[in-house]
Design brief:
Helices cover about 45% and strands about 10% of the residues. By secondary structure, the protein is an alpha/beta fold. It has a domain of about 200 residues: Rossmann fold (3-Layer(aba) Sandwich). The strands form two sheets. Strands 2-1-3-4-6-7 form a six-stranded parallel β-sheet, sandwiched between helices. Strand 3, helix 3 and strand 4 form a beta-alpha-beta unit. Helix 1 packs across helix 7. The N and C termini lie far apart (about 40 Å).
């Protein structure tokens, strides 16, 4: 299959490109770092010719909120998506998968696809608008579109100084697998099954996050005493953490739920808190081989004095 991957030099784009090629697919990369842009219609039209599927990961991210103005976000995340959708219809592609983000939510509690998105910054606003464009093209032009709202998969340190000071980077990321993180290998898997299922489903929005052990009845206790709740599900976690000088978050205010993606897409994520605990105890790396291969990409060319990127 000939697949167009936008943002092919980024975290997810690189992982998708490597995986697709390993599976024998022909990948057409489209990335601003390689001299091509989703806002250049002529470029998009040339790249999309003969393509059966589009995996659209290119975006300005939340770390760009401080360094890029709002117009740049609109141009890239909305106009760029519009151009891709129009050219996908013109080219007659079989499926279009859009990488959105749990950043469209500002909700706390038990977060499913039924929760109304309320974006808190221009990043979330433009991702939600691009989602709606996908739905419009699916309904109006019968373009099979799947929207994947991915949770965190980047390896960089947290942008909040107090959080960085309180937790070792690996400690924090293992904690996040309980409620808001996904390994990039599983994120890639979600895109592959979405690509395969798009024609049957027509349109769908799905949260892509590691499978949480929690239930809705845990939410109140998670907010007030997260370690106690985690202990109920994983009695062995405290000893494993103590051996490393790690600690659990004192409070968890939201849980992203992937049940719909597992049920409708048939997605089967591997990396969850239980697996990571077992790997820690076995002295193994908690990240997937693909995550280690892709490594850290960063978001900016410049280096900042306070953290991996500025906070807005």
């Amino acid at each position: 299959m000939r697949v167009l991957v936008t943002g092919s030099s980024g975290h997810l784009g690189d992982a998708l490109t490597r995986t697709l090629r390993d599976l024998g697919h022909e990948v057409v990369p489209l990335d601003i770092l390689e001299g091509s842009s989703i806002t250049d219609r002529a470029c998009v039209r040339q790249k999309i010719a003969g393509v059966q599927s589009v995996l659209h990961t290119a975006t300005l991210h939340r770390p760009h909120v401080v360094t890029h103005d709002r117009q740049r976000f609109v141009d890239t995340n909305i106009t760029g998506t519009l151009i891709l959708l129009e050219e996908a219809v013109r080219a007659g592609v079989d499926s279009f998968v859009f990488t959105s983000s749990t950043g469209v939510f500002q909700a706390t509690g038990w977060v499913t696809e039924e929760v109304a998105p309320v974006p808190k910054n221009i990043y979330g606003v433009t991702k939600r608008a691009a989602e709606d464009l996908c739905e419009l093209f699916s309904r109006r032009d019968r373009l099979p579109c799947i929207v994947l709202r991915t949770s965190r998969f980047f390896p960089e340190e947290d942008d909040d100084r107090s959080t960085r000071e309180a937790y070792a980077n690996e400690n924090l990321k293992v904690n996040e697998y309980l409620y808001r993180r996904v390994d990039i290998e599983d994120a890639v898997g979600a895109h592959l099954v979405a690509m395969a299922r798009a024609r049957d489903l027509g349109f769908g929005r799905y949260i892509i996050s590691a499978t949480t052990p929690f239930s809705p009845t845990d939410i109140a206790d998670l907010h007030t005493n997260a370690p106690q709740v985690v202990r109920r599900y994983f009695p062995d976690y405290e000893a494993a953490y103590a051996r490393r000088g790690w600690k659990m978050l004192s409070s968890i205010d939201r849980v992203y739920v992937n049940a719909k993606a597992r049920a409708e897409l048939g997605w089967q994520p591997r990396y969850d808190f239980r697996l990571l605990l077992d790997r820690l105890e076995a002295g193994e790396d908690v990240t997937s081989p693909l995550a280690r291969l892709v490594g850290s990409k960063g978001y900016h060319a410049e280096v900042f004095t306070d953290g991996p990127y500025p906070v807005g």
